[in-house]
Amino acid sequence: MGSRQGTKTGNAGFDALAAEIHACRRCPRLVGWREAQAAEPPRRYRGEDYWARPLDGFGDPGARLAIVGLAPAAHGANRTGRMFTGDRSGEWLYAALHRAGYANRPESRRRDDGLRLRDAYVTAVVRCAPPANKPSPQERDNCLPYLARELQLLERSNTIVALGAFAWEGSLRAIAALGGEIPRPKPKFGHGAEALAGRWTLLGCYHPSQQNTFTGRLTEAMLDAVFARAGAAACG
Questions:
Q1: How far apart are the C-alpha atoms of 34 and 57, rounded to whole Å?
Q2: Residue 5 within a domain
Q3: N or C, where is the chain less crowded by C-beta within 10 Å?
Q4: How confident is the model at residue 11 (pLDDT cuts 50, 70, 90)?
Q5: Contact, 88 vs 210, CB < 8 A?
Q6: Position 22 in a domain
Q7: How many CA atoms does the CB half-sphere of 45 hold within 13 Å?
Q8: Helices 137-153 and 165-177 meet at what angle, rounded to 10?
Q9: In degrees, to the nearest 5, what angle opens at C-alpha 197 toward C-alphas 193 and 199?
Q10: pLDDT of 89-135, one tens digit each?
């Protein structure tokens, strides 16, 4: 099964979407923020060449499992140019994907580090780093068509892990935009929550943010259990 490195997939649909995402300037507040963070980075990142553009997803175009987060971090993915790369959240996520057999290595450092995902694809609801990690509803809605198109291009995908309540809500909205049937009442997010929406099994997981991992709200065992369930759902 093929895998993607950066934005080079060999898949015309994914590559065209990536080019469109990279050029996006729909949200003036987010454009200004992401570029300001690159222009005045913290001391530890001074001298680095920031990506400072919107991000497409990363992973296997033939994936059955999609992992959806909130948005790039200002000095993580906004710096490195790959989703969940360059911060503590990404360290937790890719280590878990490696333990579950989805990644060929346990860390993601930069776009050309040789990381490959198998049967998994990592993306987010919002594609630019938002101030305080809080996109507005309008910024979310501006980005949702990108997530919907990624899910559409992931023709084999049948399982989504939503990292946090924002990703859960965004995933449901993207599925609805594709014509997928959403249960009523609308499923509520929770760690371990599960719902059938359209062709997808949607699984809830606490976001691997420092706020959750440092406090023990999310443990490695809890994260591993979600990906074990995701693997069973994807193969079922």
A1: 17
A2: no
A3: C
A4: confident
A5: yes
A6: yes
A7: 18
A8: 60
A9: 125
A10: 999 999 999 999 999 999 999 988 999 999 999 999 999 999 999 99
Contact 142, 25 (CB under 8 A): no
Measure the CA–CA gap between 10 and 81, rounded to whole angstroms.
19
Domain assignment of residue 213, given as a range: 12-235
CATH number assigned to the domain comprising residue 150:
3.40.470.10
Measured over the CA atoms of residue 95, residue 97, residue 99 and residue 105, the dihedral's sign is negative
Confidence (pTM): 0.94
Asked if residue 185 has a cis previous peptide bond (ω within 30° of 0), the answer is yes
Alpha-carbon torsion (114, 118, 119, 120), positive or negative:
negative
What CA–CA distances, in Å, run from 141 to 26, 41, 81, 93, 137?
11, 28, 22, 25, 6
pLDDT at 9: 56
140: Cβ contacts below 8 Å, ≥ 6 apart? 125, 126, 166, 170
- Residue pLDDT, tens place only, 184-213: 999 999 999 999 999 999 999 999 999 999
Query: Number of folded domains in the chain?
Result: 1
Contacts of 26 (CB under 8 A, 6+ apart): 142, 143
Residue 37 has pLDDT above 80, yes or no: yes
Return the H-helix or E-strand segment holding 149: helix 137-153
